[in-house]
Amino acid sequence: MPKLALQDLDVRGRRVLVRVDFNVPLNAEGGITDDSRIRAALPTLDYLLERGARVILCSHLGRPKGKPDPALSLRPVAQWLSDLILRPVSFVDDCLGEKVEKTVSILQNGDCLLLENLRFYLQEEANDPEFARRLAAYADFFVNDAFGAAHRAHASTEGVTRFVQQSAAGFLMQKELKFLGEELANPQRPFVAILGGAKVSDKIKVIESLLAKADTLLIGGAMSYTFLKSQGVAVGASLVEEDRLDITRRTFESAAARGKKICLPRDHVVARRVETDRLDKKGRKIVEFQDAQNTSSDSIEDGFCGVDIGPQTVRAYQELIRPSKTVFWNGPMGIFENKNFAGGTFEIARAVAESGARSIIGGGDSVKAIHASGLDGRITFLSTGGGASLEFLEGKTLPGVAALTDK
After folding, report:
1. Residue 364 annotated in active site
2. How far apart are CA 320 and CA 55, in angstroms?
3. Closest C-alpha among 205, 202, 208, 249 to residue 222
4. Any catalytic annotation for residue 3?
5. Do residues 3 and 405 make contact, with C-beta atoms less than 8 angstroms apart?
6. Which of 101, 193, 301, 333 is deepest in the core (most CB within 10 A)?
7. What is the structure's pLDDT at 367?
């Protein structure tokens, strides 16, 4: 790594500010429903505590819009983390001010403190220099282990690095950069990339990047309907980005010129989309899907929309995944949150797990799908970064990485 790493720091007796990604999902009662992001930070935390550092953790949680919101407090995370590491984790209900300063001043070697949600202040996302300076004043060193927030130039990811002695990458950050960078830059072949999700526009640059590396691209999810329509296939009432049809056509041309293969679904699970009068928790009308059925070809009749890849496609994709040596996957194959339309995603997950390939899952809904399938223990690496993973794969510079101290 061209940047300073955690193991390059002499941390004993030093105060270390660690930016973690504890943006965990909560239920209506404020309970944590998935602690994988907390667990992902444990190697860095254990390393620091075992070496006698005085650890100050900071993170965001949700979108409180710059003001305190009790429902988005990190207090429950402090207790959860304490149970995981089997030692006390102190908590202060602020991330700036006198209470924080007093608590930091009495930390002893091997102590751990978690600050309140950074986004209770508008200055965090604005990368306000004074906010960053005050945050940095608590520590001698800064460690960024929040890859999922590294694509944002916020006070706690980028601004704080200007006010500490040295800034380094934590173990999770190092691992993310290794797998999404080195492993995919020089993959064992055959290298199969699987892309799904809703929109072509979100991933067209990732597709272009992967075309230079992967041998085969397998397309699923709602984005496949834009690809299919660009090839003259009827897609019924499926989600299509009409303004992306030209660019998807050019993508096929680019793939052919490179001798690469883009595979599209050859059949689908389809249903009629019905908008009800009932509202969800966010005030949106709840949508139901009726008359679900399989198609016999890649075309979809009027009135129906695609909700998952069909059995023919599953088998075809499995045959391509089985001999692969490297697999990268980002985006589900269908509406996997609905158990009736999760079959395609789960079957592809099983194929990836059974292939024995070096498998890298690119964050976001893909990781949720892998967890839901129960196959996460058989995947080589699950990225914690959604947007950060995509921007890194596009070749963009991540501000939270670029700001770290050069070796």
Report:
1. yes
2. 47
3. 202
4. no
5. yes
6. 333
7. 87
